[in-house]
């Protein structure tokens, strides 16, 4: 397996829109991801950080955090919500440059499956093992892997603070079996070794505002945060309308996503209104559904 930071499918956000050209779509289909640099500009990043650092919001998030141990004395933390809401982070998840881009990449109308703030704090942030997101969502009886995640860096993501690692084109291998190792879920190691022999592993080095759009079957992991710098990221998961779960579970069924223009992010002044987001309380999770999710 080769290791590199030389990513494919990297694009730059310019102006007010992002066009999913045939080349962009071909890169997503081939590699299982694209990266859009500066999807959020400095003002937009500052706004969402202001929201999550607001004392009242921070208290709410802290009271509902899922802590995931990596069995090496460290842990990653996340707060998960079911609906985008009308706050700043909700405007990002509902924006054309995020949700609209996902619709073009998946070729279908999408809805908000869930969102989360994932944090790796300095010196204590834990690792996540190699996995596919669809390894979890398959258990929720979602029949097709027509789903994707948008990972938006709120802090600089580097090797030393646990940036994402991906295996290019691994989404073409289909859904792999997963098993629990402590609180983490990891894919079948025998199959993983063979995949890593064939495909390239890449480090996703991101600056604040950069976004990774990736397919739900793309293998990914992340290391521990051994640095003095935190690693915060906003993640939004989308499912396609035709791919609803066959059973009710802790994530929402289809609710039409009311997309907003990209300008709605900067015009939004709601930093503490989580009323409509439906935060998932950890104690309500069903352990049979392999929860908590370990996204990155």
State the CATH architecture: Sandwich
CATH topology: Jelly Rolls
Mean pLDDT across all residues, rounded? 89
The run of helices and strands is EEHEHHEEHHEEHEEEEHEEEEH
Q: What structural category arises from helix and sheet content? A: alpha+beta
Tell me, briefly, the overall form.
globular
Low-confidence stretches: 284-295
What would you note in describing this structure?
This protein is α+β, with helices and mostly antiparallel strands. The chain has a single domain (3-289), classed as Jelly Rolls (Sandwich). The chain is 23% helix and 26% strand. It has eight helices and 15 strands. It has helices at 22-31, 42-53, 55-63, 88-94, 96-106, 134-137, 189-198, 263-267; strands spanning 3-4, 10-12, 33-37, 66-69, 75-81, 110-120, 128-131, 147-153, 164-167, 178-181, 184-187, 201-203, 211-215, 220-222, 231-240. The strands form three sheets. Strands 2-3-13-8-15-6-5-4 form an eight-stranded mixed sheet. The protein is globular, with a radius of gyration of 17 Å.
